[in-house]
Amino acid sequence: MARVPRVTTATGLGDQAARGAGVTLGAQLLRAGLQVVALVVLARLLEPRDFGLVAMVTAVIGVAEVLRDFGLSSAAIAARDVTRAERDNLFWVNTGLGLACGVLATAATPLVVALYDEPRLATVVPVLAAVFLVSGANTQYRADLSRRLRFRALAVADIASQVLAMGVAIGLALAGAGLWAVVGQQVTAATVLLLVNVVSARWLPGRYRRDVPLRRFFRFGGALLGTQSISYLTKNVDNVALGAVWGASVLGVYSRAYQLLMMPLNQVNAPLTRVALPVLSRVRDDGPTYRRYLSRAQLVGCYVTATGFAVGAGLAEPLVALLFGPRWSAVAPVFAVLALGGIFRAVSQLAYWMYLSQDLTGAQLKQFLVTRPLMVLVIVAGTPWGAVGVAAGHSIAYALYWVASLWHVGKVSGVDTGPLLRNATRVLLTVSAPCGVLALAATWLPVPAAVQVVVGLLAAAAWLGLLVAVVPAVRADAVTVRSFALRAAGRRRAA
User: Which of 8, 78, 329, 344 registers the highest number of CB atoms within 10 A of its CB?
Assistant: First the structure.
């Protein structure tokens, strides 16, 4: 049976991974920039209530997005090989799941309206439910492009969808469409993403074949579905709690802060997962190489993503003032607290990659069944204190989860994660935290917000430069991160 072409493991696999990460992260930076523009413009054209109403819907029916994937995208990416017939069958399964999820979400419209006591949601839910069918059809196209390490094609799709979705959203907002500008943005992004990926992949699915089993994909994806569903609950219980208790306006403020957090996090974690998962899966039997790749990935996450969130937390007030304007000042303290949790969400991604690349989704599910309910309790406990209280619960929960997940994945995989935990802690305490404190100190200066941001960034950069100059361990880390960056740009090959 014909097999889908794949890139074989070779000595240059590390360079392929680095270049793939470079292309992907470069595109994601551009995409993030476009999202910032859309976020800023829409925040000045719409009211907090408009964002809050859409957040109410997505927090409840968004779980269908997890169900329509069923873990099959990651199963296809992590598989050692996928036949063409298996790929076709997977396409039809994901498309069927997307259709079923759309129908179920539409049928649940009265329940969503009753939960929040918001009659306006009756027209919003069916429109957003249609996105599940489009995303279901797109699932295996993205998986196939990831398997073949075609990161440029994925980047083109991401950017094109973002540009067009932003244009539609801003146009609708200027026309006075209110919350429909946000709805239109989501529908447009999903549709364009599918169309561009179909063109890039250059294949159309054949008929479904009953004689081609998919058991191995469902075995992998079924366990992953459980973890993703529980993860979704953890990530969205804050929106549901705030919406039900405090209403659309408070949720609108929280959702802007949360989106400001997730925008950089998604632009880094999702594309890095597309690069890391196929690469780590191929070297998982080579212990030294596997550990080396994990260590490098962690350094990039600590020095870039985690430190960025620490600085963002310190500069929350002037950043929000510059981006959203004075009427959104309530977003600043919420974002500052959420960004602290973002530090731990960034570094905990490593454990997620280890579970998937080692084919330990079942073990991950068992871990989730213990840790995630506790996280939900911690997050919900902050509800009486409004958006800031929920944000605090969120950050505390993810800090505890980072330690627990890294310990557990090391235990079940046999990989010694002690050095990873110690190195990450060292970087967070000596680099990320001081950079965040220096950024915060810059906000105490009696100067305009833009100047505070510049001074804060320069102070953080100066501290990092000082550490590189005087601390050998940090200097060695900087060499590793710089080497990764050069390889990402295709300017140096692995040793």
Answer: 78
Q: What is the pLDDT of residues 266-315, one digit of tens each?
A: 666 666 676 677 777 777 777 788 888 888 778 877 888 889 999 999 99
Closest CA to 43 of 252, 310, 272, 354: 252
As a dihedral over the C-alpha atoms of residue 43, residue 26, residue 149, residue 303, rounded to 10 degrees, the angle is -100
CB atoms < 10 A from the CB of 448, how many?
12
Burial tier of 26 (Cβ tally within 10 Å: 0-12, 13-18, 19+): middle
Q: What is the pLDDT of residues 336-366, one digit of tens each?
A: 999 999 999 888 888 988 888 888 878 888 8
Q: Which residues of 129-155 are buried (b: 16+ CB within 10 A; e: fewer)?
A: bbbbbbbbbbbbbbbbbbbebbbbbbb
Six-digit token string for 274: 């597309």
Name 208's Cβ contacts closer than 8 Å, sequence gap at least 6: 88, 89, 92
Backbone phi, then psi, for 164, in 5-degree steps?
Answer: -65, -40
Q: Which of 49, 111, 383 is nearest to 247 (CA)?
A: 49
- Give the 3-state secondary structure of 40-108: HHHHHHCCHHHHHHHHHHHHHHCHHHHHHHCCHHHHHHHCCCCEHHHHHHHHHHHHHHHHHHHHHHHHC
Residues counted in the chain = 495
Distance CA 122, CA 107 (A): 11
Q: How far apart are CA 237 and CA 214, in angstroms?
A: 33
Q: What is the C-alpha to C-alpha distance for residues 325 and 43, in angstroms, rounded to an integer?
A: 9
Residue pair 326/375 in contact (Cβ under 8 Å)? The answer is no
What backbone torsions phi and psi does residue 87 show, to the nearest 5 degrees?
A: -60, -45
408-446 CB burial, b ≥16 within 10 A, e <16: bbbebbebebeebbebbeebbeebbbbbbbbbbebbeee
Give pTM, 2 decimals: 0.70
Residue spans of the chain under pLDDT 70: 1-29, 32, 266-272, 274-275, 484-495
User: Which residues on neighbouring strands pair with residue 83, listed in sequence order?
Assistant: 3
C-alpha 292/C-alpha 420 separation (Å) is 11
